[in-house]
Design a protein that fits this description.
mainly alpha; 189 residues; 80% helix; elongated
């Protein structure tokens, strides 16, 4: 009699550990973040979350009187996404060259055009922090609507899955009883 773990379980654990370590490397993190952003529904959700975090953090730092370059540097560290951080790097480089803050944002495909337009208006009116805050609120509302709709879509799917699991258990419990009854009836004839 063989005793031991199935081979598949240790392989899956090793692959998960290897993936987790690879994602912690700069190259792995870049590939991971890029892949996550390309996912059909969740990619858009992650993109909006990272950009909302960028807008709210940058707005709070500007409102607190932190210089723009230092604000961009701090914000880059808080977005938690390499692709968005590269966009912030491009903005920072443009500001160092004397360009308007939103000038480089247009060339970054990760940022929606609405954000660059809001930042441009904010720069021109001197209310960049409030425009960024409005953008963050708008994105947060969009994120909440998306999560709510995903939740409402998942409820029927979970009901079907749970119903199938319960049905399978019931069949697994009663099927042996029916087989025993057949054997008893066959043996009595």
């Amino acid at each position: 009699m063989k005793v031991g773990l199935p081979i598949g379980l240790p392989v899956i654990v090793l692959m998960a550990v290897g993936l987790a370590r690879w994602v912690k490397t700069p190259q792995g993190r870049a590939v991971w973040d890029t892949t996550i952003l390309k996912l059909p529904i969740f990619g858009s959700l992650m993109r909006k979350t990272a950009i909302s975090r960028f807008c709210s953090t940058f707005s709070a730092l500007l409102r607190a009187g932190v210089p723009v370059l230092e604000s961009l540097e701090i914000t880059k560290e808080t977005v938690n996404n390499v692709v968005v951080a590269r966009g912030v790097d491009a903005m920072e480089e443009g500001v160092r060259r004397g360009e308007p803050i939103a000038a480089r944002l247009v060339s970054q495909p990760i940022f929606p055009s609405m954000i660059s337009q809001m930042m441009t208006v904010g720069e021109e009116t001197g209310a960049l922090d409030s425009m960024l805050q409005r953008s963050a609120v708008f994105l947060d509302e969009e994120i909440q609507r998306t999560v709510d709709s995903l939740t409402s879509l998942m409820e029927p799917i979970l009901i079907v899955i749970l119903g199938s699991a319960v049905g399978s258990m019931v069949i697994a419990l009663y099927l042996p009883m029916f087989n025993v009854a057949k054997l008893v009836n066959a043996g009595g004839s």
